[in-house]
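Homework help thread (please don't just give me the answer)

Our assignment gives two proteins as sequence + structure token strings and asks us to describe the second one. The first is just a warm-up. Here they are:
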Amino acid sequence: MMIAAFVPAATAAPPRHQQGVFESIASPKENVNRAIVLGFYAALNRGDLGHLDRVVRPDLVQHHPAIANGRSAFRAHHAGLREQNPNLRFTVKRTIAQNDLVVVHSHFVGKAGDLGVAKVNLFRLDRGKIAEHWELNEAVRPQGIGNDMFSTLSSPRISRSLPFSTDAESARVGRAAFDEIVNQPDDELRLKALDRYIGDNTYYQHFPDVPNGTEALQQFLHAAYAARPDYRANVKTVVAEGDLVAVFVHLEKLFDMENGVGADLYRVRDGKLLEHWAVIEPTPPTSANPNPMY
């Protein structure tokens, strides 16, 4: 099970900003943790697997089902990935850092011309080293009626966390998205919650094949409950930084998927949801480690 969410006091004031220049939202320790994780991605892109020995604990706790526990298995996994894809590239789209957790939303492309994979990775750091790792993957689909899976469309179109919400407020709204919207089987009550947490704002949607707006979200959830009345998304971990929040959930009976895990990222403003990105991965029948994906 993922560790409980970290939520600071709701009274904490957001940092100041002037003329589009924003002060850091994260603490010095959180920024150090983020830099360590971003350095990990830079090393993967240049094929420097020896860097993993410097930033990953030998006893790494692994939750990705394709990889066994431990640093050596993690390194072997990435060595195999590079052998299959010599020109691979991880492009980090956005990060969220809170306490000892860092969330990375990235686009992986193995070969030129491939659509690639949308990834959300969660890292727990301990004294400057990666101690625990979760990972979700979803193949990028050709853009259909919705938006692409990575861009930022809400204003300002900056992908990093911004000081337009406190960590606590974003975490509260991220949880409410599931408690009062996603997990609400009653259409009428869900519509009231959609008005409460989105209202007249444009809701930019990056979940494949679902267009912008509350009507499309309402239709998607109505279809989910019509197909499987016992559908449920159980919140496991919430990580927030400024106006960005990541919510990790255990999914049960979503359409034809019996079990899976989802990572939903939201942008929050004035207590409302502005934008949504998601990566969903079914739970495989076997795992190389004994730890749950969530």
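The one we have to describe:
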Amino acid sequence: MSSHSFYEADARERIHGLLDAGSFSEFVGPARRIISPHLAQLDQPGAFDDGIVVGTGSLNGRSVLIAAQQGQFMGGGVGEVHGAKLTGLLERAVAVRPEAVLLLLDSGGVRLHEANAGLIAISEIMRAVLATRAAGIPVFALIGSGNGAFGGMGIVARCCTAVVMSEEGRLSLSGPEVIETVRGVEEFDSRDRALVWRVTGGKHRYLIGDAVQLVPDRIEAFADAATALMTTHAEPQDPLVALEQAQAQLGARINAYGGCRDGLEVWRLQGIADAEQLPLLETADFLDAVKDRGLPWN
């Protein structure tokens, strides 16, 4: 495992840093030269892995299937081939039954250049995630990248068993620029980077329960968190009961925070002292500062 920055690494660096040395075997790699059938028609460059790396390996001796999106290629956008590789990996999980599937997300959502194919791909990925979980195999989303997980991949993340984030990661449905375009700058100023992270960043997502763990921006910290989750987060015996509990939590969260326009307002309602200082704290100090916060579903 590597102690390098997760945020600064690319997809293959994240995988090789996360998994046991020499254990990773890639499926449908660049040598296969399977590229998007749509991009060339639009005079857009392609990539021989179509912006995602998928394969098998081990994490601290435990078998996993893993996918890492390449954020440098078209913002990690999901197109036809990209989506098919991820769906195929999840379908393989049901067949070979690894101890977990790890999704290293780095995506702004659907690739606009092949929007219809991308939208279909997202629906197939969501279905495959839920089918994998229904088969008793947990799916964990790790988010600490430059693009974060937005749009369809934001939905996919919340379909997973659990989410791990770093402060640098972001998670949401609509991106800040999309909200500003549709609703106006008065609703959300996408140029206010501090506001963006207070609403979509890893610290806020941890505080409102979307992420079960917040880790420092180190590949080894994500590896340790994923290893721990394989022990603590088994799939529920009764999915309907688990779904009802999750829905009740979301209802309580909306009732408690629905009128808030900024993460700061949420943090104050949770009873956190000096809430405005949270963005300045290192991860360990932040976790210590918020350990006694009040949550509406407790």
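TA reply:
I won't write it for you, but here's a hint about the kind of observation we're looking for: The beta strands are 25-27, 52-59, 62-69, 100-105, 139-143, 162-166, 213-215.
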